[in-house]
Each structure stands twice: as C-alpha cells, then as structure tokens.
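Data deposition worksheet. Section B asks for the primary sequence of the deposited chain exactly as it was used as input, without tags or linkers unless they were present during the calculation. Section C holds the resulting structure in token form. Section D is free text for depositor observations; keep each observation to a single sentence. Incomplete worksheets are returned to the depositor.
Section A, Depositor: J.P.
Section B:
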Amino acid sequence: MKRRFGFAVALALAAGAPVSALAAKLPLSEQELRSGDVTVRVTDLTPRFLDFYEKAARPGVTPDERFALWEEFYGFAAIPPTPEGKTIARQLLDAAWDKYPAALDVIRKGAAGMQPGPDVAANEVRRVLGHEGPFKLQYVVYVGGFEDNAFTAGQADMPMIAMPVEMAPDARRRILRHEMTHAVHGQVAGLGNEWERSIAQTIVSEGLAMHTARSFEPDAPEHLFVDHTPGWLAEVMPRAGEILRGIAPVLARSDSETVFRFTMGTGTTGAEREAYVAGWLVVGHWLKHGRTLAEIARIPETAMAAEVEKAIAEMQAARS
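Section C:
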C-alpha cells in the first residue's frame, strides 16, 4: 500500500484557486454528492488524462516529448512539493506507460466506476471518530502510475482526497478509509494536511488512519493496512526499537527535508517511511492501553510531540 503526498496542483484545486498552468487543459469535470451532513464535490481528472494520452500515444513521440505533453495537458501526480517531485513524476509516468492500454476501459469510466463512493466512506469514518455536524470534502479522481498512492491535502474546513482510478477495488476501499480518516481527523482536531507538519503530527495522523482503516476489518492481516510494498512491514519490524529511538529526537521538526526523510525517504536506520512504522506502533500502544480512536483523534496539535515522546519511552521501557 503505497502512499501519500501529491501537492503542487492538488492544493490549488482544493482551494478553488485559478491556476495559469492549467490553461491548456480541458475544463474540470465536477459534480456534487450529498448524504445527510456530508457534501462531496467530485472533480474527475480522467478526461484530462485521456486527452493527454491520445496526444502522447501517437507514433514517434519520444519519452521526453511525452513528459512535456503530460506537464502541459495533465500534470497531476502524487508527488511532494520538493525538488524531487518533478523527477518522481517523470519516473512514475515512464514506469506506468506500458500499463495504461490495459487500464483504458477503467480510466474511461472515471469517477462513475469507482466504489465505494466518498460519501459512504465519509459517514463510515465519521461514526468511528465521533464526528458530528456538517462535513465538506473535495474528492479528486485522477490517473496515477499504478502505485496506489492516494493522498489528502487542504485545510480542515475543506479537505481534499485524491484517489487514483486504476487502483484495485479492495485496495481502494481500504485506502479510501485511510485517507478519509485524515480528512475527518483534520476537522475534529483542527488540523490542516499541509506538507510541512511536525513529525509528531505525521506519526499521530498516519497511525490513526492505519488503525481506523483496520477497525472495519479487524480480522484482516495487518500488513494490508500498513505495507508500503509487499513484505515491507515484515522487513522493518525487527528494527522497530531502533526506528523509535531514531525518530524520537525529531518529533517537533516540520521542515520539508525532515518530513521527506521520514515519510518518503529513508530514516535513521535506512528503512523507508519510518514515520509510518512509528505511527502504527504508537497508536497501537495507545489502543492497547485503553484509548479509543475517537479520543486519539482529539489529541491537540500542541500536545502531540509530548504524547508521542511519552508513548515511545513507554514502549522502549517495555522492550528492555
């Protein structure tokens, strides 16, 4: 289960702001869903992708020309707003290019072919986290690179979830609940989903999302809710104590370099995405000791570093 973070175009869409770089692209396809207190604005980017694909699939188009067309006519990917982002986007496109023909039928169905609906998932997660009152969400359907990398962005009052259309239905259901947890958590705790946020907030947010998604399928293997790639969880868990020790000193840091290192890069042990390991363990520790998911969702941002530090100390003490 690979995820998260794709921001440059995504944040502009979530905010509803005009983006000059989108001028060459097709108009956005949008509709609104309502279910009780939930209002979802669905933005479907699949027509833009298909427009790009038609141009890029012509005979004689080189990989460099293809990426230039991608930037001009589509330009949406799950990438961080860092210098590495453009390189990652190019790598994703190149790796996925030969897979797109087999997925065109799914891509052409767009948002209409994706289940469960975002309104259904929103009500499911709201019940678990005890959210009441109006809930508004922007739901962006896009074509990714077969990396199953959904993400959440935006502010607490109008979060945005972006879901790739090519994702397998079972994975989509679990990952949508994961991402919906981020959106609902943002409201109940008054958090944004910006790229630069403290490592402690990342640990709490990711751990809460993984455990909330698993709460709907408690008998399913835990790796389905945690794995970055097949076998990743089993590989990193023997280093769990070392990962916790290494991440503890940087809990308050929120600079882009540190966020990238512990979410998409390699941390102090050389393992990828160490914040996810810490999140799974810390929230699991709290649940084991009697906290509910709804209570964890209400930990104030100002208290997160101290709360996570205490949990890590308790787990380290229990290991010794």
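Section D:
The longest strand covers residues 135-142.
Residues 169-189 form the longest helix (21 residues).
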